[in-house]
Specification:
Blueprint lengths: L34 H8 L20 H11 L3 E5 L5 E6 H8 L11 H4 L1 E2 L10 H11 L3 E6 L2 E7 H12 L4
Antiparallel strand pairs: 1-2, 2-3, 4-5
Helix pairs in contact: 1-5
């Protein structure tokens, strides 16, 4: 990276110029070397075409309602929204396994508010795919609600990311 003050050619990633100590951190932005890397760094969530409107359920809906919804729509998670439309949680296949399965014969009639994941990780439509991938990986998630001002705008999944990356890779190699 060329220092704007003294024009010394520094190694990429240096925080300051080795010659004049000028701060280089603002100049060191990651660059993608191929179309997959460029897409992850530059493309935004909206290129995944999140399902709109998102299929949601209220916290009063039952586990039975949620399972029926997941199966009918071939989805793995559903955002839980209150009467004002604000997201209060998410109910996923993982919640079924961790909080519902084996809890008794009447577990399917439990309200989602009791078994949902509260304050789930979310993304915005203007976030980069790199951020999405990081959140999915670090959190071990398979679904992320897309929100704006606390309201669910759509849902994206690992499947959506894989589909996008597969499209980018067609013709590679």
């Amino acid at each position: 990276m060329i220092c704007p003050a003294c024009e010394h050619d520094n190694l990429p990633g240096n925080d300051s110029c080795v010659c004049c100590q000028t701060d280089l951190t603002q100049l060191d932005s990651p660059a993608g070397w191929d179309r997959v890397e460029r897409s992850l760094l530059e493309d935004l969530v909206e290129v995944l075409r999140p399902r709109r409107p998102a299929i949601t359920l209220p916290p009063e809906a039952t586990v039975r309602d949620a399972i029926r919804t997941l199966l009918e729509h071939n989805i793995g998670a559903v955002p839980i929204v209150d009467e004002t439309g604000r997201m209060v949680g998410i109910f996923s296949e993982r919640d079924i396994l961790l909080r519902v399965a084996g809890t008794g014969p009447d577990s399917s009639s439990r309200p989602l508010g009791e078994v949902m994941t509260r304050t789930p990780e979310t993304v915005r439509a203007r976030d980069t795919l790199a951020l999405v991938l990081n959140k999915l990986d670090v959190g071990g998630y398979r679904h992320l609600p897309v929100v704006a001002q606390g309201r669910v705008q759509g849902m994206i999944s690992v499947r959506d990311m894989l589909r996008h990356l597969t499209r980018l890779c067609k013709g590679c190699g």
